[in-house]
Amino acid sequence: MWKGRFSQPTADLVQKYGESVSYDWKLYKHDIAGSIAHAGAQLRAGMLTEEEFASIRDGLLSVQADIEAGNFIWSQELEDVHMNIESELTRRIGAAGAKLHTARSRNDQVATDTRLYCRAEIDATVELLHDMQRALVTKAAEYAETMIPGYTHLQRAQPVTVGHHLLAYVEMLDRDVSRLLDCRRRLNVSPLGSGAIAGSTICLDRVGIAEELGFDAVTENSMDAIADRDYIMEMLFALAVVGTHLSRLSEDLILWCSAEFGYATLSDAHTTGSSLMPQKKNPDVCELTRGKTGRLYGNLTAVMVAVKGLPLTYNRDLQEDKEPLFDSVATVQLALRVNAEMVAAMKINTARTQAAVSDPMLLATDLADYLVRRGVPFRSAHSLVGRAVALSVESGTPLNELTLAQYTEISPEYGADVHEVFNLERAFALRTNPGAPNAANTARRLAFWQEKLA
Ligand code: ARG
């Protein structure tokens, strides 16, 4: 494509080193859409006849059909998806094909294609996030009132419910959706017409092209448009956060599936065995999700580091943006699919959760609140309960089985009704504020998500 000023062919190793078609072929659909819109503007500018435009459009669509049928032969010598498609078009339709690249560079072309790719993949990822949320909401509804210990520092803290716990992840994934949509809004501007760096003396209708491609606007600075990869970093960040959320869920489920916790059982279809130990049933999906999240951070870091030292505008370093982007998209999408399936098939072992949540220590804070309601300042109440906890630990008597006399010996502020504190139903019912794990809140939030995700 640039042979005019060169007297030697490109060395084989340079071709191998520089080719991107082995992965950027994935942009073909967006590349073709961009080219058809570009040709449309050339037609409107009187630079193509109707016949030429039609043969470009039909030629590009026939290339697309061949790619999708698996009949297209990608050539490494042609470096990337853009040159492969353009050269095949020209081979098929002749002279008109050679006019297509007027007022366009691969620099604005790749920026356009990548934005279109990100936009489409954000939409697909949002759908998958919704599927994952649906799986969590369904499971949360099934175990809305199944009580379990909540943990801080992985030490038993206060009682919550499986419903409340799983709905926490639904909230996280909702922020992921909004982060991705926010990124989508910012990236949806058309760089086409920025040329290699400084636009073109041949002025095509940029706004018309943008409209045809579904962009909300055109970029305002040709140099920025060529050099900008913010949208890729933003998208990689948003995907890395999705990974973080799935990874934390994975960690919860790994713990829940251990014999030590025993709260959950994953289906046989979503676990693996051991080649040696016949009894094993391993939560590999969770571990893989946790492990792959490291890759997502790596991909974000790779692009940020690749871009940070680049002078304006295009530098070939920017070609290194695509593999991390494609990898994060594929990794997160597959993770969402498999996790949604796994959560849908998961069972909670209510005998185990019930036994664990019956630990009266989980209500030590409620006991302090009880003293507060009787007029004791919280700091004193905390210490009076601490003494009861110490007595319980020393004497081996569960906190709810200390006698009234033992309580009143610690402090006369403890009343005859002290043991009522250890009623779990009551403990949940007292938490009436929004956001707390009471049955009404959980039901309300479940209904909210069920409607939103319907
Ligand atoms: N394959 C290139 C990339 O992904 C396209 C742009 C190439 N432009 C250039 N002047 N070499 O970045």
Automatic annotation (TrEMBL):
InterPro entries for the chain: Arg_succ_lyase_C, Argininosuccinate_lyase, Fumarase/histidase_N, Fumarate_lyase_CS, Fumarate_lyase_fam, Fumarate_lyase_N, L-Aspartase-like
Q: Where is the Fumarate lyase N-terminal domain?
A: 4-298
Q: Where is the signal peptide?
A: none
The alphabetized UniProt keywords are: Amino-acid biosynthesis, Arginine biosynthesis, Cytoplasm, Lyase
E.C. code: 4.3.2.1
Subcellular localization, per the record? Cytoplasm
GO BP terms: L-arginine biosynthetic process via ornithine
Identify the residues that the record assigns to the Argininosuccinate lyase C-terminal domain, covering every copy. Answer: 362-427
Q: In which pathway does it act?
A: Amino-acid biosynthesis; L-arginine biosynthesis; L-arginine from L-ornithine and carbamoyl phosphate: step 3/3
> SUPFAM superfamilies, from UniProt?
L-aspartase-like (SSF48557)
Q: Which reaction does it catalyse?
A: 2-(N(omega)-L-arginino)succinate = fumarate + L-arginine
**Could you tell me the superkingdom of the organism this chain comes from?**
Bacteria
Per the record, the similarity remark reads: Belongs to the lyase 1 family. Argininosuccinate lyase subfamily.
Q: Which NCBIfam families match?
A: argH
**PANTHER family in the record, alphabetically?**
ARGININOSUCCINATE LYASE
Q: What is this protein called?
A: Argininosuccinate lyase
